[in-house]
Amino acid sequence: MLKLRVFFIILSVSLGLHAQQYHFTNLSLPDGLPQSQVMDMCEDSRGYIWMATNGGGLARFDGLEFRTFSSANGLPSPYIHCLLEDHTGKLWVGSAKGLSYKTGSAFHDLKLPEKNLSVDHIHEDQQGTIWLGTPNGVYRLRDTAVKAFYPERIQEHTINFIQTAVDNSVWIGTDKGIFIYRNDSLSTLSTSNGLTNRLSRCMATDTAGRIWVGNYGRGFDLITARGIYNMGPLCELERSAVLDISCDEDGLVWMATQEKGICRFNPADSSYVFLGEADGLANNHVRSILHDRWGNYWFGTSGGGVSKYSGQQFERYGRESGLPGSYIYAITADHHNHVWVSTSGGGIARQSEKGFVAYQKDSGFTDEKVRALFADSDSLLWIGTDGQGLSVWDGDTFRFFDVNDGLAGNWVKCIREDSRGQIWAASAGGGISRITKTNKPDSLVIVKYTTRNGLESNRVIYLHIDKEDRVWFASQTSGIGYIAHDSIIRHFSVPEGLASHDVRSLAEDSLGTLWIGSTAGLNAIRLYQGSLKVHKIAGEPLVSHNIYQLTGQGNNLW
To answer: Which helix (DSSP H) or strand (DSSP E) does residue 15 occupy?
Structure first.
């Protein structure tokens, strides 16, 4: 089996979107989140994002939709405070009425020393011990035994966080400073020995082992072996409350603030940027931060639900930019770096300095929908339409070719060019056309490939041409195949190992692997390593097995 590392792109179309400088996806009550205050978040080993809400129970997000867990699933309270998946894969849930753990689809209570004891914080140290922060101090869980931790010193304090430093010392943030448990000894850190503010709210450790502490009202502190430094004034946080903090692999420090949104601080040059409602964040009161395995940041807000930040900046183009429609069917760039787009509004559009210029019936083209766009090596733009065959744009004129001119079919779904400059066009219901250009713009030499000369199905929707000039084709009813030397046809389908007969997309990566996306998942073929064989895929589970599009970028598959 081939091992798989996949990057997922979940696309949706919304007519109500507005251009944002930063790419935030906001999820709240209309999207299925049961309550709009998100107190904590956790990503489990299967890739689900779990969200603790303040009165709406526990929400699980699978990338597409939410599922809510409540008292019907065994949770003792809808007020969820904290979450943790431990090293064994068990999910722990702290609520206003105790501690629960998940088995299957149900939750079970773990008996605590006091009935209905609120569990506000959960942490696992490097030895696998579970630490609990409650209004009555700190408890440690080993196996099924729950014991109070230094009750004579900690019980009277409000617990704000429990974290582990790189030396395996456990740091407990309270309303009166930080307790540090190291080598079976408990020490304290407060304003008397260096802290800027004794109201410590959150903590994170960066890749260099430095400790960052967020506090109420004075921003945040940096703790190193050399001393403690208040960093709040460096980024206008000297009077702000930092409610959560996270450090990424690039050394950046992300802080959730009570009223200023997210502050992203770079210790290397002391630069910073605020991300708030004006940038697309759902709410400037941010309570929790989660950095998932794909590099996305999730921000739980107080009243605005969750904002997912993907890091990339996007500029949106819609009807206001000149596009005829809002649903995009095809995109390509020509040799002049002009971007061409086909939309649900019919026709096509070309990007200009002032937006997009539409080409439809009133400008010599057609109002039919366009499903395929391809710019060839001769700077011609080939356009596949729904029902009117192919059109060719030479920069001045549109020329049309259909079944009456020898084309295999009028519903053209995909267009490609081989190393000889021949154009290949796949059509739904007509098969494949191989097109040779002539010296006459209005004349093409067309050879058809259909069920009459070797195809198993005429419903071909995708093409890929590999480095050996084999033309690979994907069908909705008979899997995939290739044409070699203009005539040899070989097929692969379910009996040969494909997940489904219905294949939608093909993509080749830099290692020479052809990836096959179907309605039942992924397959792969190594194109240049001996005999061609369909491989099943092993690796991380897909968000969905219903694959619409694939593209390769280096050694990565999107």
So the answer is: none
